Amino acid sequence: MLAYAIFNPLDYWPILLSFLGGVAALLALDLFVIERLAHGGTTPAAQARRQMQVSAVWTVICVLTALGVAWGFRQFALSEITANPALLEDTRYFKLEPAQAAGTLFLEFLTGYVVELSLSIDNLFVFLVIFRYFGLDHDKQHRVLFWGIIGAVVFRAIFIGIGSVLVSYAWVLIVMGIFLIVTGVKLIASEEKQLEPEKNPLIRMLSSVLPVSKNFDGTRFFTHLNGKLAATPLFVALLVIETTDVAFAVDSVPAVLAISQEPFVAFGSNICAILGLRAMFFVVAEAMQKFHLLKYGLGLVLVWVGMKMTVLPYFFKDELTNPQGHVPIPLSLGVIIALIGGTMILSLVIPARASAEESPATESDNGGNTNA
């Protein structure tokens, strides 16, 4: 298993445990410290400003942490490969010097992080619609986002673990590449769909085994209804977020594996991208709606990484220097940044349709549609 990885997580399990420990520490800090710091304004306006300031600072910290993890992994890779050059044998990096291999892994980590962060920002559009549908205020949004992110970490670990094993077969990469191209084209051509949680099979299953209250009970996921345990609309919203994230992972995991099949790079960049998602939501909630053309950039990114797995290797193949036809990572990173950045800039230059300009939900507990 993972025979073509430089650093097999089963062999380097202390590194994996250390990373997961750091993730757990950041999540605990987010839940028990950062959210409390966000409360403290004497007026609603002052409270909103404080929440925005705390969220902005925490977002910056998460981004810097991701960059620090990428650099730390580069230094670790350089040290290990220098001490044991045989690690590169039977891998795609076998012709590289230790410094070159470590540098390539670093760029792959950054590229994967940029792609996953971009996809995560796009996912926030959907989260915004879900929150509006259920009429969630700030505290409820925070609670759903926090536990949603924990679920996302678990699902990403499972999917990337499976994917890292499967990509050892060449045909799997081709299938993933075709899937990404088709997904990208659909994203570019599709219209936004209406949110219909009542059609979610998991929600239907929940309703069949557990009563669902029509009213919130603070930020609790469960309450008592007629003396029986019942789920609140907040728990229904969490299930919608989790199932939506699973659908997102179907796109994002092949995308990051197209950039790097090294498990630590794929998993690390993916998790770093979603760690700051909660705070980022509150920072860019208003701005998100201005990036109405972002989906076209993301669609083109998926097409690009899909072509990178299928067609492009034939254009870069060189029997002496690049027998496997790997697309240069700096080129791939540059194209991805240009596509994402370009569509974001165009979104600010070209106004969106009036119907798309809606503000985030700020309803009270009883606001919005709470029937599920």
C-alpha end-to-end distance: 43 Å
- How many helices in DSSP terms? 12
Strand order of the largest sheet: 1-2
Structural class: mainly alpha
Share in helix: 55-70%
Report low-confidence residues grouped into runs of 5 or more: 355-372
Shape: globular
Short account of what is shown:
This protein is an all-alpha fold and 372 residues long.
Molecular structure report:
The chain has 372 residues and is mainly α. The chain has one domain (13-356). Helices cover 68% and strands 2% of the residues. The chain has a two-stranded antiparallel sheet with strand order 1-2. 38% of the residues are buried.
Question: What is the topology?
Answer:
Layout: H1 13-37, H2 44-83, H3 98-134, H4 138-166, H5 170-189, H6 201-209, E1 222-225, E2 228-231, H7 233-259, H8 263-275, H9 277-288, H10 294-310, H11 313-316, H12 329-349
Antiparallel strand pairs: 1-2
Helix pairs in contact: 1-2, 1-8, 2-3, 2-8, 2-9, 3-7, 3-8, 3-9, 3-10, 3-12, 4-7, 4-8, 5-7, 5-10, 7-10, 10-12
Keywords:
single chain, 372 residues, mainly alpha, two-stranded antiparallel sheet, 2 strands, 68% helix, globular
